[in-house]
């Protein structure tokens, strides 16, 4: 492990290699193309299976638009990870079909152990989750026993079980402010960019793990500035998993839900959006009259491994959703003892964010 005044560089080459290996295997994400008739047929079939299995579809904003449309058309939910967790927990369905990535399925199981949690693919993971292996993380936490451990939702159940708090980007700043007001020193994992953003904003004492989201890490301020020169009246919306230099050129910084809200409240008619392009489906619904433009990922220094679309989110498709419902397979399991421990920091977050809304 290497320490520095800026944070802690603990992500070893093995973890980085695991992320790279996943990316190499996946290739570039493909959009899903269906004829109208085929789409309608798939929607009808899936709707019938959802009814039969007493199931509901919970989808993330970064899924393909057709999956989001299906969730809406069948009484499910399209949301950020915090709202997905709440919706799944409170919905009376016996089965939740979670269209997203693995940690979202695990979170659903932790909060709703009595429900069957299915995922269209069990291969869909997240570079933040991959980049925070529980053994190394536990070692790191054990080396700083006087620190409160705060982890982002994008982590495994085992990492959550080692944490005092789980947060999502919708409530992270407020929770860190709260902990800082109590004089607590904080370990933050795994996203270094979000951690740095919160640290700058709150001035809290934080040690940062050095994970990163492969989608947001690709945005570059130079590319965005060049695009802004083409659209001088546009607002720039940035997710805080992006590098600090990108956050610095933003008109609004926030979680997916907060960016959708910003698109509505900002007066500009054109938005340059630096987050996964899956968000355009919901954002355009909220501001049908505005023009939305993808922030470039091919600016100076970018390698465009993601092209603003998460390769793991792209693995959720209609056929996968139909298959899991027909065969009731690809179920998420979490060890009961682990689940109990991981539930505590999750419950803390849900209680805090519920109090925030009152
Ligand atoms: S977009 Fe980034 S943070 Fe979200 S699931 Fe994909 S890799 Fe993880």
Automatic annotation (TrEMBL):
Keywords: 4Fe-4S, Cytoplasm, Iron, Iron-sulfur, Metal-binding, Pyridine nucleotide biosynthesis, Transferase. GO terms for cellular component: cytosol. The keyword Zinc-finger does not apply. InterPro entries: NadA, NadA_sf. One of its GO terms (molecular function) is quinolinate synthetase A activity. The keyword Amino-acid biosynthesis does not apply. Its EC number is 2.5.1.72. One of its GO terms (biological process) is 'de novo' NAD+ biosynthetic process from L-aspartate. Pathway: Cofactor biosynthesis; NAD(+) biosynthesis; quinolinate from iminoaspartate: step 1/1. This is Quinolinate synthase. The lineage of its organism: Bacteria, Pseudomonadati, Pseudomonadota, Gammaproteobacteria, Moraxellales.
């Amino acid at each position: 492990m290497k320490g520095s005044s800026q944070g802690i560089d603990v992500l070893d080459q093995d973890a980085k290699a695991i992320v790279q290996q996943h990316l190499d295997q996946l290739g570039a994400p493909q959009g899903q193309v269906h004829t109208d008739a085929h789409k309608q047929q798939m929607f009808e079939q899936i709707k019938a299976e959802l009814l039969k299995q007493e199931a509901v579809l919970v989808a993330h904003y970064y899924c393909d638009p057709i999956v989001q449309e299906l969730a809406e058309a069948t009484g499910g939910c399209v949301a950020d990870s915090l709202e997905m967790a709440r919706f799944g927990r409170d919905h009376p369905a016996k089965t939740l079909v979670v269209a997203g990535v693995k940690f979202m399925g695990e979170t659903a199981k932790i909060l709703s152990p009595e429900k069957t949690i299915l995922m269209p693919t069990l291969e869909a993971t997240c570079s933040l989750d991959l980049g925070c292996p529980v053994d190394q993380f536990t070692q790191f936490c054990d080396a700083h026993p006087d620190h409160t451990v705060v982890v982002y939702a994008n982590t495994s159940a085992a990492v959550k079980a080692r944490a005092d708090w789980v947060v999502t980007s919708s409530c992270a700043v407020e929770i860190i402010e709260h902990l800082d007001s109590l004089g607590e020193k904080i370990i933050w994992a795994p996203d270094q960019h979000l951690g740095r953003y919160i640290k700058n904003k709150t001035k809290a004492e934080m040690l940062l793990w050095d994970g990163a989201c492969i989608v947001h890490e690709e945005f570059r301020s130079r590319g965005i500035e060049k695009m802004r020169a083409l659209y001088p009246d546009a607002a720039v919306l940035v997710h805080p998993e992006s590098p600090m230099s990108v956050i610095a050129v933003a008109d609004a910084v926030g979680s997916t839900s907060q960016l959708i809200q910003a698109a509505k409240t900002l007066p500009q008619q054109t938005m340059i959006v630096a987050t996964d392009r899956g968000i355009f489906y919901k954002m355009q619904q909220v501001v049908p009259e505005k023009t939305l433009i993808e922030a470039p990922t091919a600016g100076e220094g970018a390698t465009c491994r993601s092209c603003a679309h998460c390769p793991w989110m792209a693995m959720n498709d209609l056929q996968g959703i139909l298959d899991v419902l027909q065969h009731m397979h690809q179920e998420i399991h979490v060890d009961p003892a682990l689940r109990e421990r991981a539930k505590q920091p999750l419950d803390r977050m849900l209680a805090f964010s519920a109090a925030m809304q009152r």
